[in-house]
Amino acid sequence: MVDSPAKAVQEVKQSHQRGSYSHNKRVFKIIVLGDSNVGKTCLTYRFCESKYLSQPESTIGLDFREKTVIVDDEEIKLQLWDTAGQERFRKSMVAHYYRNVHAVVFVYDVTKFSSFQALSHWIEECNRHNLTRDIPRILVGNKSDCSETQAVLTSVAQKFADFHNMPLFETSAKEESEHGNINGIFLTLAHKLKNQKPMMMGSVPSEHLLRADVISVTRECSHPANDGSSYCYC
């Protein structure tokens, strides 16, 4: 993680739509959007640090991480921008956050239907900042290990992803076994960005939507709460 959001902003100001170059390395800015407590920080931490963030704190303003990956023998740096889900914590950063974005990851909590409903708000916000469907987008349902308390059916999420022309992934930042799938999410973006191709084959009318790929992993929710309900912090 960089020392401050200001430093991150300064670095990304130098990027452009085809990706900037840093020490002969292309740099791509990926923003991670979704409501508070859906696990955005845990997802980026799992990808960048290869481990679970067991005691995450609420993101205030902006969180920033980066990781270099190898795609077709080329080093590519992915900059992951994770902003607070609450508007009062992000007003001052919105203009910088949506500048020079190369890809978007939308995240919801599969155990919280309201976080899924809020995706329309996040998509609208992207549209207001001119992040059109030409920019690769991915939909991620986090906390898939909590199958007993799943509130968003995969079939419902799939229809939403199809309508918005996005691939759907279901995963869990908490589960060590899901590390490979989380890597796959961001490597999928890296391949698309390197080749400068849309995630799917352009915009199509809703009546002709093609089905997006979905990676669906359902696991048992562990450690039921004392009151008989289940919980999950991933």
Description of the structure:
It is a single chain. This protein has a single domain (about 5-215), classed as 3-Layer(aba) Sandwich (Rossmann fold), CATH 3.40.50.300. By secondary structure, the protein is α/β, with parallel strands linked by helices. The model is unreliable at about 1-20 and about 195-234 (pLDDT under 50). The chain starts with a helix and ends in a 19-residue tail after the last strand. β3 (about 60-70) and β4 form a beta hairpin. The chain has helices at about 5-10, 40-50, 95, 115, 120-130, 155-165, 180-195; strands spanning about 20, 25-35, 60-70, 75-85, 105-110, 135-140, 170, 215. The chain is globular. Strands 1, 2, 3, 4, 5, 6, 7 and 8 form an 8-stranded mixed sheet that branches. The protein contains 7 helices and 8 strands; from the N terminus they run αββαββαβααβαβαβ.
Instruction: Write the CATH architecture name.
Output: 3-Layer(aba) Sandwich
Helix and strand pattern: HEEHEEHEHHEHEHE
Overall number of strands = 8
Which structural class fits the helix and strand makeup?
Answer: alpha/beta
CATH H-level superfamily: P-loop containing nucleotide triphosphate hydrolases
Mean pLDDT: 75
Indicate the low-confidence ranges by residue numbers.
1-18, 197-234
Shape type = globular
The radius of gyration over CA amounts to 17 Å
Provide the β-strand percentage band: 15-25%
Number of helices: 7
Biggest β-sheet strands, sense, barrel:
8 strands, mixed
- Write down the domain tally: 1
Give the fraction of residues assigned to helices: 25-40%
Return the CATH class: Alpha Beta
Examine the coordinates and then state which fold CATH places here, giving the name of the CATH topology: Rossmann fold
- Terminal CA distance reads 20 Å
